[in-house]
Amino acid sequence: QVLLVFAEEDEQSNGFRWACDKAGFRCNLARTPQSALECFLDKHHDIIIIDHRHSRYFDAEALCRSIRTTKASENTVIICVVQRHTDREESSILPLISAGFTRRYVENSSRMACYNELIQLEFGQVQAQFKLRACNSLFTALEKSQEAIEITSEDHVIQYVNPAFETMMGYQIGELIEKELTEVPINEKKSDFLDTINSCIKIGKEWQGMYYAKKKNGDCIQQNVKILPVIGQGGKIRHYVSISRLCNDNNKVEKTCECIQAESQTDTQTCRHKDMRKGSLDVRSTTSRGSDGISQRRRSSMARVHSMTIEAPITKVINIINAAQESSPMPVAEALDRALEILRTTELYSPQLGTKDEDPHTSDLVGGLMTDGLRRLSGNEYILSAKQTHQVAGSLSSPISLNDIPPRITQAMENEEQWDFDIFELEAATHKRPLVYLGLKIFARFGICEFLNCSESTLRSWLQVIEANYHSSNSYHNSTHSADVLHATAYFLSKERVKQTLDPIDEVAALIAATVHDVDHPGRTNSFLCNAGSELAILYNDTAVLESHHAALAFQLTTRDGKCNIFKNMERNEYRTLRQVIIDMVLATEMTKHFEHVNKFVNSINKPLAALEENGNNGDGESIKTVLRSPENRILIKRMLIKCADISNPCRPREQCIEWAGRISEEYFAQTDEERRQGLPVVMPVFDRNTCSIPKSQLSFIDYFIIDMFDAWDAFADLPNLMEHLNNNIKYWKGLDGRNLRVLRPPP
User: Fold this and answer.
1) 479 labelled binding-site residue
2) Which of 250, 410, 595, 724 shows the greatest Cβ crowding within 10 Å of its Cβ?
3) Residue 36 covered by a domain
4) Active-site residues: which are they?
5) 707 vs 132: CA distance, rounded Å
6) Range of 100's domain?
């Protein structure tokens, strides 16, 4: 709302009235100071514009002072319109500031000038005042909090305490404000205490522990305290927030002894750094770095999980912990409560990022790849090719035989059994149809036709149908990516430990799953499809949308035409088993379950194998076979295999890694462009083609998703060449990032 105070109507007042109408602001006009004050007290305008050009009508500065004396004006922006003087020196603005004006406006009756002034005010001072108003509700929450809260400056000067703090410590707020912590005798060894925690909080880490504090009357109380540094301007710590509450036994006994600092617990369990890879794994030492989420101590009266007639394993674990708590000392009970808090989450395997400010590249990648998007109910729907006529065998030209492959393509596939095989050379040689040719060669090497009891011509037709349903217009998710994943899958299947583990049907399923795992991919993420209300998102209930579509369409394309039905001669039960494995592997490529798959693989396979080796059972084939060959573990191995194959780009030779990075970045850029065109939520705003740092995005992806997974896979399958490429590529991206370059390659 805008209040215009002009004694007479003129071009300037008309300009502001027009600007208010154009901007959609409600506008009132007052001619006298008295009517202006009455109108403001009734309406509480956000902006007041007072005419200061003609002192003969009223004293603008006196009116401003009168308005400022009212409580309602605390968050009001007041503008002073002054005359334009071209023949004398600029006058000082200080008298206007002293009178209470926010800023001045040199008269300009141009309608667009008035409009621009209002828009600048809206997105500048007015928006800032809205935020200040919102602070009132935040302080209300602090005032009503039952936990004692103390806020200090970066120099440990007390700036705020809430009533709960006053009640707990026996001080009045006036006795504490502007005092340094060392001036307040809360703890007789306060300086030592600050030295202890400063080593933690001064570098941005959170501290939590218990200590005895002295009240104003001299009594000692035991508190559970959490101190959090708050990052402010310049990326530096500007405040500290301390949250305290009494430990349970303080209600029974208060000590009036010399206060000493209790165990401050500044070890790795309570002095935490918000590492963006929470829950990451050190496979080589077979220990988990674990999650650092520390929850507040639950009250002892918290409702316990009761026994059930049919107990799930997690329920049994929670009941055991609950029982152990009853006779545990306080520190142990506190730790068990935190464990219970973690166990009760539905995302047991997914680490949580700290604040979004920590690393926007990682946050956006996680938001874009590991969520199903923001739900958006509108008519702005994105129609994927759900009604599109997919390519079928009869509509395609007959592919050539494996024996008739042109020499250039044969030469491009000569080293396809090696990890350094160049898929882009094959892409060029085949005019962007690498999947048919590479598929024919790899499937022949693994004897797929013999296993499926199908002819080579049927396999050729099937490969061509599948490749035709990949979108060549996608920069990344096209048939070249499928061929690359097929190659990586075949390479992993040739590793000795993998061969010991999997059966022939598993190998067949893995190669087929790799071939079809992204068929008909639209070049957009699951989050995009869910936000856009696409037909596929509706069909699959916003859950694993693309992966479900890839698996379903693959079987539809295969079985609808006998010419390409590679399963038509299989025995029914064997086909059902094969189909189940293929679907499970394709669904495993969905990123929301990434950490669950990796953690289960480490805990069920890496660690037991490492334990056998440590105990000198390296030659005990039966023990190793028990770990490798159990049905549950074979499923985990197959999931891990295709996951690693699917996102192995950072482990490829450098030039291939760079090319893949450019392609996925372009696909994400295109998605961001389309989201903005359609007015959809931008799920990965960091992927703006004008500002994105590709090296940073690659480093974030590698650090959050790749390193732990390939550490685990390397420990299992022995892949030193991949890990060497990975380390070299990390150094390459860090080198570019260190030079503040946002591009794929350094300038010549």
Assistant:
1) yes
2) 595
3) yes
4) 477
5) 43
6) 2-141
